[in-house]
Write a structure and sequence with these properties.
Helix content: 40-55%
Number of strands: 18
Structural class: alpha+beta
Distance between the termini: 64 Å
CATH class of the largest domain: Alpha Beta
CATH topology of the largest domain: Nucleotidyltransferase, domain 5
Number of helices: 14
Shape: globular
Oligomer: single chain
Largest sheet: 5 strands, mixed
Strand content: 15-25%
CATH superfamily of the largest domain: Ribonuclease H-like superfamily/Ribonuclease H
Strand order of the largest sheet: 3-2-1-4-5
CATH architecture of the largest domain: 2-Layer Sandwich
Radius of gyration: 24 Å
């Protein structure tokens, strides 16, 4: 049914409030980020077989309003969707399950949906790629065909393996990344949006959109100068960058107490080398193998080596290992050509991600009363668009939460753009 009268909508709403369903949002423009897009159609498939299309912005229908959409967000029934983040940018639905996540938790790779496009979609997107709001003119029946093909692919994963750990991941990780994406980054005179993909082999999110790889912005070619504060002369960009983050995470994991100060300098003194060489040696040992002379002479690496051997035995015996925070299983069946150091590398990258996500679930609610925004997350750093009106106390509060009360120290820098950043860590001493 195409729901385009008030009577039909009320009938649908009654059913929607009582029964679980699968939702497929069809956005107006195929090229725009969901945050700056509009909803063309909303497809809903119930588990009794009935399906509906709700038009909100389409040339063939009498369109529903924003109020109609908002009424749907009050429902507490279960809603399954391929991409929870994408749906969340359109409307704040309750109790949404990300099917791609459910599949990923079992297989360690995303669900491939690229073959569900119809011939009509391929024709329009090829011939009229540069046209805006293309989905508003592709016939509704062709959208219906696409949605039905997609739902057929998604249905087997509904109600599957949804334990409390997966639900926590579904709520924490997806919602944190949605929040950061929705903030956007000021680039010259316009706002651009990033798009995080958490479904990578290690769980470490990639981040690219619109031809920009936000996870690997060049630090040396001047391209970062275009990223500025949205608050004009009343704002600056502020970055918190962890010091020796992986080493500190690993030390915490194996129960080794590090001394205060720079961990790279601490290890440099034990290696008998300078600071820069110390960094290179540490990562060589951690991810390439710890030589016996190093584990015998440096207590930290002795503990790390014992831990690596322990998880390798678990991996071979159980055919999976479990992440430390969100209890994600990394299955042997989903990985190829693994050795003990690769398994350790996977686990540390996952620990880094999960530790950051858990911390951000505590930080983000504290940002709501401020104008400043968290605009970029890049593994071991966090970039804020800081409004000066929020004051130094805001920066101190953020630093305390990110560092987890000095457990993971950061260097803080700020500047008028993302290229010209000045170290201000000393202001927090």
């Amino acid at each position: 049914m195409v729901v385009d009268t008030e009577e039909q909508y009320n009938e649908f709403l009654t059913k929607f409030e009582l029964e679980d369903c699968i939702l497929v949002p069809v956005l107006s423009d195929i090229k725009l980020h969901p945050k700056e897009n509009s909803l063309s159609l909303l497809y809903a498939k119930f588990f009794d077989g009935e399906d509906y299309i709700l038009p909100f912005n389409h040339s063939e229908a009498i369109n529903l309003t924003e109020d109609h959409l908002q009424k749907l967000t009050n429902s507490n029934n279960k809603k399954y969707t391929y991409d929870k983040k994408r749906l969340s940018h359109i409307a704040n639905f309750k109790n949404v399950y990300d099917i791609n996540l459910l599949y990923y938790m079992d297989t360690n790779h995303p669900l491939d949906i690229y073959e569900v496009d119809t011939n009509a979609h391929r024709y329009f997107t090829t011939k009229f790629y540069h046209k805006k709001n293309l989905n508003k003119v592709i016939p509704i029946l062709k959208h219906l065909e696409y949605c039905r093909k997609l739902v057929k692919l998604l249905e087997p994963y509904c109600n599957k393996n949804i334990n409390s750990d997966i639900m926590t991941y579904n709520n924490d990780v997806i919602e944190v990344l949605t929040y950061i994406e929705s903030s956007g980054l000021q680039r010259n005179k316009s706002v651009v949006y990033s798009e995080y993909n958490p479904y990578t082999s290690t769980g470490r999110p990639s981040n690219r959109f619109g031809g920009i790889n936000f996870a690997a912005l060049n630090k040396n070619d001047g391209s970062r100068k275009s990223f500025v504060s949205r608050f004009g002369n009343r704002g600056v960009l502020v970055e918190y960058d962890f010091d020796g983050y992986h080493l500190r995470l690993i030390a915490d994991l194996v129960g080794y107490e590090l001394p205060e100060g720079s961990i790279h300098q601490y290890l440099a003194e034990q290696y008998g080398v300078d600071y820069n060489e110390s960094k290179a040696l540490s990562f060589k040992f951690l991810y390439g193998g710890i030589p016996k002379e190093i584990s015998d002479s440096i207590p930290f690496f002795n503990e790390v080596k014992k831990y690596i051997n322990k998880i390798w035995k678990e991996y071979k015996r159980e055919e999976f290992i479990v992440s430390d925070i969100y209890k994600k299983r990394i299955y042997k069946k989903n990985l190829r050509n693994m050795n003990k150091n690769k398994v350790f590398n996977y686990l540390v990258q996952l620990l880094e991600t999960e530790s950051n996500m858990k911390m951000l679930t505590r930080l983000i609610p504290q940002l709501e009363s401020y104008d400043s925004k968290l605009v970029l997350y890049s593994y071991d750093s966090f970039l804020f668009d800081f409004c000066l009106n929020d004051g130094l106390e805001f920066l101190k509060k953020v630093k305390d939460v990110i560092e987890r009360h000095d457990k993971f120290p950061t260097k803080v820098s700020w500047g008028p753009n993302y290229h010209e950043m000045k170290d201000i860590t000393g202001r927090f001493v």
